[in-house]
Amino acid sequence: MPGIAKEIYVSGICIEVRKKKIKNLYLSVKPPDGKVVISAPCRISDRLVEEFAKERMEWILRQKRRLEQMPQQAERQYLPGEDLYIWGKRYTLAWQEWGNQNSFVLDDDKAVLCMRSGSTVKQREAYIREQYRAMLKEETARLLPEWEARTGLHCSSWHTKYMKTRWGTCNTAKKRLWFNVQLAEKPLECLEYVILHELAHTKIGNHGKEFAALMDRYMPEWREVKKRLNERQ
């Protein structure tokens, strides 16, 4: 049945297999713990899924090692002295108690957060996340039309949402794009890479040679930008 997940073991690695109404196999190694997930068409056999995983085992192990070597990021409390990143620049969070009106202002190398006394971590996180969303919307509204004009590729609509494992997604059938709110923390070139990446998916549904050639044509340095995008701050 679509959406049902099961676990298989290939070369001692536990892999979660999710059967969906899709045409191709997709493999991902998800942070922070390196969970391996394969999305597969509903009718494909487990044997073919296992063969697919075996062929890519070297890549899977390499990705798992990369995640293991990354330093664990401390959980944020959104309190004075913590670092925040906006378009790749580091800001030191400053805190002010301010009645019932919230605000978030960038002042030189400080990000000044004003919230009422007694606010919780979740409330501070939600408020700052919405500031990131507003910044992301502004820059996407500026950059996306430029990349559409440059490539001749167009989306029907675009939206923002908070995602844990993806920087962007594309509904290839409806040409609808989604961008991760956390992109506002990364350098603008990373947002441009994700915009191009998702626009490419409006034409090409996989990451094969045709996809890579399109990326090479419009952003020859995209592989380096992708690495910077995935670096922890």
Task: Write a structural description.
Strand 10 and strand 11 (176-180) form a beta hairpin. Helices cover 37% and strands 27% of the residues. The strands form three sheets. It has a four-stranded mixed beta sheet. It has a four-stranded mixed beta sheet with strand order 5-6-8-7, covered by helices on one side. The longest helix has 31 residues, at 121-151. The mean pLDDT is 90. The chain is globular. Helix 3 packs across helix 4 (188-201) and helix 4 packs across helix 5. The protein has 233 residues and is α/β, with parallel strands linked by helices.
Cα-based radius of gyration, to the nearest Å: 20 Å
Order of helices and strands: EEEEHHEEEEHEEEHHH
Helix content: 25-40%
Give the distance, in angstroms, between the N- and C-terminal Cα atoms.
40 Å
Q: Provide the low-confidence segments as ranges.
A: none
Class inferred from helices and paired strands: alpha/beta
**Average pLDDT for all residues:** 90
- Please count the beta strands (DSSP E, at least 2 residues each): 11
| Fraction of residues in β-strands | 25-35%
Overall form: globular
